[in-house]
Amino acid sequence: MADGVGRWNRRAVLRRTALLAGGVALGAVGTVQTTWIADRRLPLAGGPASATLGSQFQEVGGGTVEAVWGVHTTERLLALTFDDGPLPQWTPMVLDTLERYDVPATFFMVGARARDNASLVRGRMGRHEVGNHSWAHHDLARMDAQTAYDDLRRSHDAITEATGMSPRLLRPPWGHLGGAVLHAAARLDYRLVLWTLQMVEGQFPRDPVGHARRIVAGVQPGTVLLGHDVGTERRLVALRGLPDMITGLRARGYTFVTVSDLLRRAAVE
Questions:
Q1: Is residue 157 annotated as a catalytic residue, yes or no?
Q2: Which domain, by its residues, includes 22?
Q3: Is residue 62 situated within a structural domain?
Q4: Are residues 103 and 26 in the same domain?
Q5: Closest CA to 265 of 105, 76, 128, 133
Q6: Catalytic residue, candidates 83, 84, 151, 229
Q7: Is 228 part of the annotated catalytic residue set?
Q8: What does the pLDDT read at residue 44?
Q9: Checking CA distances to 159, which of 5, 46, 82, 206 falls within 20 to 30 Å?
Q10: A single GO molecular function, which one (predicted)?
Protein backbone atom coordinates (compact mmCIF):
# COMPACT_ATOMS: atom_id res chain seq x y z
CA MET A 1 0.00 0.00 0.00
CA ALA A 2 2.73 2.45 0.94
CA ASP A 3 4.69 1.54 -2.20
CA GLY A 4 1.57 2.07 -4.29
CA VAL A 5 0.94 5.44 -2.72
CA GLY A 6 4.58 6.35 -3.27
CA ARG A 7 4.41 5.31 -6.92
CA TRP A 8 1.15 7.24 -7.41
CA ASN A 9 2.63 10.30 -5.80
CA ARG A 10 5.70 10.12 -7.99
CA ARG A 11 3.52 9.71 -11.10
CA ALA A 12 1.34 12.63 -10.01
CA VAL A 13 4.35 14.84 -9.39
CA LEU A 14 5.87 13.95 -12.76
CA ARG A 15 2.57 14.52 -14.55
CA ARG A 16 1.97 17.82 -12.84
CA THR A 17 5.55 18.91 -13.52
CA ALA A 18 5.10 18.11 -17.20
CA LEU A 19 1.82 20.05 -17.32
CA LEU A 20 3.42 22.98 -15.51
CA ALA A 21 6.37 23.01 -17.88
CA GLY A 22 4.04 22.93 -20.81
CA GLY A 23 2.04 25.79 -19.37
CA VAL A 24 5.19 27.86 -18.82
CA ALA A 25 6.26 27.19 -22.38
CA LEU A 26 2.84 28.19 -23.72
CA GLY A 27 2.91 31.26 -21.48
CA ALA A 28 6.34 32.23 -22.81
CA VAL A 29 5.12 31.83 -26.38
CA GLY A 30 2.06 33.89 -25.53
CA THR A 31 4.19 36.64 -23.96
CA VAL A 32 6.53 36.73 -26.94
CA GLN A 33 3.58 36.87 -29.32
CA THR A 34 1.89 39.63 -27.31
CA THR A 35 5.12 41.65 -27.24
CA TRP A 36 5.59 41.10 -30.97
CA ILE A 37 2.04 42.31 -31.68
CA ALA A 38 2.56 45.37 -29.46
CA ASP A 39 5.89 46.18 -31.11
CA ARG A 40 4.31 45.83 -34.55
CA ARG A 41 1.93 48.64 -33.60
CA LEU A 42 4.73 51.04 -32.70
CA PRO A 43 5.61 53.65 -35.36
CA LEU A 44 9.14 52.27 -35.65
CA ALA A 45 9.85 53.53 -39.16
CA GLY A 46 10.38 57.23 -38.54
CA GLY A 47 8.83 57.02 -35.07
CA PRO A 48 10.35 57.82 -31.66
CA ALA A 49 12.43 54.65 -31.58
CA SER A 50 13.80 55.03 -35.08
CA ALA A 51 16.88 57.01 -36.07
CA THR A 52 15.91 56.76 -39.74
CA LEU A 53 13.10 57.92 -41.98
CA GLY A 54 12.32 54.50 -43.37
CA SER A 55 13.61 53.95 -46.89
CA GLN A 56 14.00 57.65 -47.66
CA PHE A 57 17.39 59.21 -48.34
CA GLN A 58 18.74 60.40 -44.99
CA GLU A 59 19.32 64.16 -45.00
CA VAL A 60 21.48 64.26 -41.89
CA GLY A 61 23.90 67.16 -42.22
CA GLY A 62 27.40 65.97 -41.42
CA GLY A 63 26.09 62.46 -40.85
CA THR A 64 27.23 62.05 -37.24
CA VAL A 65 26.03 63.01 -33.77
CA GLU A 66 28.29 63.42 -30.75
CA ALA A 67 26.82 63.07 -27.25
CA VAL A 68 28.67 64.74 -24.38
CA TRP A 69 28.20 64.39 -20.62
CA GLY A 70 31.51 65.98 -19.68
CA VAL A 71 35.14 65.74 -20.76
CA HIS A 72 38.35 64.19 -19.49
CA THR A 73 40.89 66.93 -18.90
CA THR A 74 43.81 67.66 -16.62
CA GLU A 75 42.85 71.35 -16.50
CA ARG A 76 40.46 72.60 -13.85
CA LEU A 77 37.76 73.62 -16.32
CA LEU A 78 34.05 73.82 -15.66
CA ALA A 79 31.08 74.55 -17.95
CA LEU A 80 28.16 76.19 -16.16
CA THR A 81 24.82 75.65 -17.94
CA PHE A 82 21.26 76.86 -17.38
CA ASP A 83 18.10 75.28 -18.78
CA ASP A 84 14.49 76.24 -19.50
CA GLY A 85 14.63 80.04 -19.87
CA PRO A 86 14.44 82.80 -20.60
CA LEU A 87 11.70 84.06 -18.29
CA PRO A 88 11.42 87.34 -16.34
CA GLN A 89 11.49 85.60 -12.93
CA TRP A 90 15.15 84.73 -12.65
CA THR A 91 16.97 84.95 -15.98
CA PRO A 92 17.93 88.62 -15.38
CA MET A 93 19.20 87.70 -11.89
CA VAL A 94 21.40 84.97 -13.33
CA LEU A 95 22.75 87.25 -16.06
CA ASP A 96 23.45 89.99 -13.49
CA THR A 97 25.38 87.58 -11.25
CA LEU A 98 27.40 86.18 -14.15
CA GLU A 99 28.23 89.70 -15.31
CA ARG A 100 29.28 90.77 -11.82
CA TYR A 101 31.68 87.83 -11.49
CA ASP A 102 32.73 87.79 -15.16
CA VAL A 103 31.61 84.19 -15.66
CA PRO A 104 30.63 82.74 -19.07
CA ALA A 105 27.82 80.21 -19.25
CA THR A 106 25.78 78.21 -21.74
CA PHE A 107 22.02 78.77 -21.80
CA PHE A 108 19.86 75.98 -23.22
CA MET A 109 16.80 77.99 -24.18
CA VAL A 110 13.22 77.00 -24.86
CA GLY A 111 12.33 78.48 -28.24
CA ALA A 112 8.86 79.77 -27.35
CA ARG A 113 10.26 81.51 -24.26
CA ALA A 114 13.11 83.02 -26.27
CA ARG A 115 10.59 84.41 -28.75
CA ASP A 116 8.31 85.83 -26.03
CA ASN A 117 11.11 87.22 -23.85
CA ALA A 118 13.70 88.29 -26.38
CA SER A 119 14.16 91.63 -24.60
CA LEU A 120 15.59 89.81 -21.56
CA VAL A 121 18.53 88.40 -23.49
CA ARG A 122 19.00 90.62 -26.53
CA GLY A 123 22.35 92.36 -26.20
CA ARG A 124 23.09 90.60 -22.91
CA MET A 125 24.63 87.33 -24.03
CA GLY A 126 28.14 88.76 -24.38
CA ARG A 127 30.62 85.94 -23.83
CA HIS A 128 27.86 83.38 -23.17
CA GLU A 129 26.58 80.83 -25.67
CA VAL A 130 23.14 79.44 -26.44
CA GLY A 131 21.84 75.93 -26.99
CA ASN A 132 18.51 74.52 -28.11
CA HIS A 133 16.22 73.01 -25.45
CA SER A 134 13.17 72.40 -27.71
CA TRP A 135 10.30 74.66 -28.67
CA ALA A 136 8.01 74.19 -25.65
CA HIS A 137 9.83 71.73 -23.35
CA HIS A 138 7.85 68.72 -24.54
CA ASP A 139 9.46 65.29 -24.57
CA LEU A 140 11.27 64.99 -27.90
CA ALA A 141 11.87 61.28 -27.25
CA ARG A 142 8.12 60.67 -27.69
CA MET A 143 7.97 62.38 -31.07
CA ASP A 144 8.52 60.89 -34.50
CA ALA A 145 11.60 61.94 -36.44
CA GLN A 146 9.95 64.63 -38.55
CA THR A 147 8.03 66.14 -35.62
CA ALA A 148 11.18 66.28 -33.49
CA TYR A 149 13.04 68.00 -36.32
CA ASP A 150 10.22 70.53 -36.88
CA ASP A 151 10.15 71.30 -33.15
CA LEU A 152 13.91 71.87 -32.96
CA ARG A 153 14.05 73.81 -36.23
CA ARG A 154 11.35 76.19 -34.99
CA SER A 155 13.18 76.62 -31.69
CA HIS A 156 16.52 77.10 -33.46
CA ASP A 157 15.14 79.97 -35.52
CA ALA A 158 13.49 81.64 -32.52
CA ILE A 159 16.66 81.47 -30.40
CA THR A 160 18.74 82.83 -33.28
CA GLU A 161 16.30 85.71 -33.78
CA ALA A 162 16.14 86.54 -30.05
CA THR A 163 19.85 86.39 -29.27
CA GLY A 164 21.62 86.95 -32.59
CA MET A 165 23.46 83.68 -31.93
CA SER A 166 22.86 80.41 -33.77
CA PRO A 167 22.73 77.40 -31.42
CA ARG A 168 25.06 74.52 -32.22
CA LEU A 169 24.25 72.47 -29.12
CA LEU A 170 21.14 70.52 -28.13
CA ARG A 171 20.03 69.42 -24.70
CA PRO A 172 16.75 67.50 -24.96
CA PRO A 173 14.25 68.08 -22.13
CA TRP A 174 14.96 65.85 -19.12
CA GLY A 175 17.92 64.40 -21.02
CA HIS A 176 15.56 62.01 -22.82
CA LEU A 177 17.10 60.52 -25.93
CA GLY A 178 15.49 58.47 -28.67
CA GLY A 179 16.17 57.61 -32.26
CA ALA A 180 14.11 60.53 -33.53
CA VAL A 181 16.11 62.95 -31.35
CA LEU A 182 19.37 61.61 -32.78
CA HIS A 183 18.07 61.93 -36.32
CA ALA A 184 16.88 65.51 -35.79
CA ALA A 185 20.17 66.46 -34.11
CA ALA A 186 22.12 65.06 -37.06
CA ARG A 187 20.00 67.02 -39.53
CA LEU A 188 20.70 70.24 -37.62
CA ASP A 189 24.42 69.48 -37.12
CA TYR A 190 24.01 69.67 -33.35
CA ARG A 191 26.13 68.23 -30.61
CA LEU A 192 24.06 66.59 -27.89
CA VAL A 193 25.02 67.92 -24.46
CA LEU A 194 23.80 66.35 -21.24
CA TRP A 195 25.51 66.97 -17.89
CA THR A 196 27.94 65.55 -15.36
CA LEU A 197 26.56 67.15 -12.19
CA GLN A 198 23.20 68.70 -11.41
CA MET A 199 22.28 71.30 -8.82
CA VAL A 200 20.17 69.67 -6.09
CA GLU A 201 18.15 72.52 -4.64
CA GLY A 202 15.59 70.25 -2.99
CA GLN A 203 18.24 68.84 -0.67
CA PHE A 204 19.10 72.28 0.74
CA PRO A 205 15.84 74.15 1.46
CA ARG A 206 16.53 77.75 2.47
CA ASP A 207 20.27 76.99 2.59
CA PRO A 208 22.00 78.57 -0.43
CA VAL A 209 25.39 78.46 1.30
CA GLY A 210 25.06 74.74 2.03
CA HIS A 211 23.99 74.04 -1.54
CA ALA A 212 26.92 76.02 -2.93
CA ARG A 213 29.30 74.12 -0.65
CA ARG A 214 27.94 70.79 -1.92
CA ILE A 215 28.44 71.78 -5.58
CA VAL A 216 31.93 73.16 -4.96
CA ALA A 217 32.93 69.86 -3.33
CA GLY A 218 31.38 67.74 -6.09
CA VAL A 219 32.90 69.36 -9.18
CA GLN A 220 35.76 67.63 -11.00
CA PRO A 221 37.82 68.82 -14.00
CA GLY A 222 35.72 68.73 -17.18
CA THR A 223 32.36 68.91 -15.40
CA VAL A 224 29.25 70.14 -17.20
CA LEU A 225 27.11 71.58 -14.38
CA LEU A 226 23.33 71.79 -14.83
CA GLY A 227 21.27 74.58 -13.29
CA HIS A 228 17.97 76.28 -14.15
CA ASP A 229 17.04 79.92 -14.57
CA VAL A 230 13.30 79.23 -14.23
CA GLY A 231 11.20 76.93 -12.06
CA THR A 232 9.74 76.67 -8.59
CA GLU A 233 10.78 78.73 -5.59
CA ARG A 234 13.10 75.98 -4.32
CA ARG A 235 15.45 76.61 -7.25
CA LEU A 236 16.21 80.05 -5.88
CA VAL A 237 18.46 78.28 -3.36
CA ALA A 238 20.95 77.57 -6.14
CA LEU A 239 20.63 80.97 -7.80
CA ARG A 240 21.04 82.88 -4.55
CA GLY A 241 24.07 80.74 -3.82
CA LEU A 242 25.71 81.40 -7.19
CA PRO A 243 28.19 83.96 -5.78
CA ASP A 244 29.38 81.49 -3.13
CA MET A 245 29.53 78.75 -5.74
CA ILE A 246 31.60 80.86 -8.12
CA THR A 247 34.04 82.12 -5.51
CA GLY A 248 34.35 78.65 -3.97
CA LEU A 249 35.17 77.02 -7.29
CA ARG A 250 37.66 79.73 -8.18
CA ALA A 251 39.31 79.20 -4.82
CA ARG A 252 39.76 75.57 -5.87
CA GLY A 253 41.49 76.75 -9.05
CA TYR A 254 38.61 76.29 -11.47
CA THR A 255 38.10 78.35 -14.64
CA PHE A 256 34.60 78.81 -16.05
CA VAL A 257 34.17 78.25 -19.79
CA THR A 258 31.28 77.69 -22.17
CA VAL A 259 30.48 74.14 -23.22
CA SER A 260 31.97 74.71 -26.67
CA ASP A 261 35.17 76.12 -25.15
CA LEU A 262 35.36 73.13 -22.82
CA LEU A 263 35.12 70.74 -25.77
CA ARG A 264 37.71 72.66 -27.80
CA ARG A 265 40.23 72.89 -24.98
CA ALA A 266 39.86 69.24 -24.02
CA ALA A 267 40.32 68.17 -27.64
CA VAL A 268 43.81 69.73 -27.90
CA GLU A 269 45.22 68.11 -24.75
A1: no
A2: 1-40
A3: no
A4: no
A5: 76
A6: 83
A7: yes
A8: 59
A9: 46
A10: hydrolase activity, acting on carbon-nitrogen (but not peptide) bonds
